[in-house]
Design a protein that fits this description.
The chain is an alpha/beta fold and 239 residues long. It is 36% helix and 26% strand. Helix 5 packs parallel to helix 6. A hairpin with a 2-residue loop joins strand 4 and strand 5. Bound molecules: adenosine-5'-triphosphate. Adenosine-5'-triphosphate binds next to strand 2 and helix 1.
Length: 239
């Protein structure tokens, strides 16, 4: 059974139709990359899956159960954890306190502070530091760790590499690879195509609110994804 099913989802910001009839599935244990240029609708879609944005039409299912009307806090308890763009940490609290907050609304499961530190060893020495004093990479690791502490069955990652140095991105993705290979179901929004294609088993490409390409990363030619990403084929057709 699919961990997540999105069916004909429409999302608006006021009059703006940001996501149009989007459908896709994420299989249990799969890493799916959601890619697309700025404004394609990726963040809006992720927020809707987490329950932070109400759909105008369509349906969202978690493990086959319709959750379209379920409020965000209950979705956390059901197994959905969102690492939002910009991290949204409690900057006056320590790394450890932020991690423990993650456990409050969550589910029972294997994640502990110790296990987060094993996944992100760079946090070990920073455990008692306020997150406002951390580097961008450490903050991002804390934000992901906080999400993991809720023991999610589905982890939503929004632009985790945004604003980080190349070295910090490398380190973060090294840690994420272990996590992804361990069978965690991940829906990853990433603007860096190489990164996305490097870790995901499947990719969904959005352009101006619609899905324009979907398939396994192993068999999709890189050029096809790039063209879909920038809407090159469509421009050619319109010329
Ligand atoms: P980015 O990579 O820039 O975050 P994205 O693919 O995540 O892009 P969204 O942030 O979901 O795209 O935005 C989709 C559309 O909705 C864009 O046209 C954007 O300007 C618009 N939008 C996003 N948030 C809001 C908001 N709070 N109010 C009004 N319009 C919004």
């Amino acid at each position: 059974m699919s961990a997540l099913t999105v069916k004909s989802l429409d999302l608006h910001h006021g009059l703006l139709h940001a996501v149009r009839e989007v459908s896709f599935e994420v299989a249990s244990g799969e890493v799916l990359a959601l890619v697309g240029a700025n404004g394609a609708g990726k963040t809006t879609l992720l927020r809707a899956i987490a329950g932070a944005h109400r759909p105008t039409a369509g349906r969202i299912e978690l493990d086959g159960q319709d959750i379209t009307q379920v409020p965000a806090h209950r979705r956390v308890a059901m197994g959905i954890a969102l690492v939002p763009e910009g991290r949204r940490l409690f900057t006056q609290m320590t790394v450890e306190e932020n991690l423990l907050v993650g456990r409050l609304a969550g589910r029972k499961g294997p994640w502990t502070v110790r296990k987060v530190l094993e996944t992100f060893p760079n946090l070990e020495a920073r455990l008692k530091a306020r997150t406002g004093t951390l580097s961008g990479g450490e903050q991002q690791a804390t934000a992901i760790g906080r999400a993991l502490m809720s023991n999610p069955s589905l982890l939503l990652l929004d632009e985790v590499s945004l604003g980080l140095s190349p070295i910090a991105i490398e380190r973060l993705y090294d840690s994420l690879k272990g996590l992804m290979q361990s069978g965690t179901t991940v829906l990853l929004v990433e603007q860096d195509l190489s990164r996305a294609l490097g870790v995901a088993q499947r990719v969904v490409c959005m352009l101006e609110g619609r899905v324009v390409l979907e398939g396994p990363t192993a068999s999709l030619p890189r050029e096809a994804v790039t063209e879909a990403y920038f809407g090159v084929g469509r421009e050619r057709a319109m010329a």
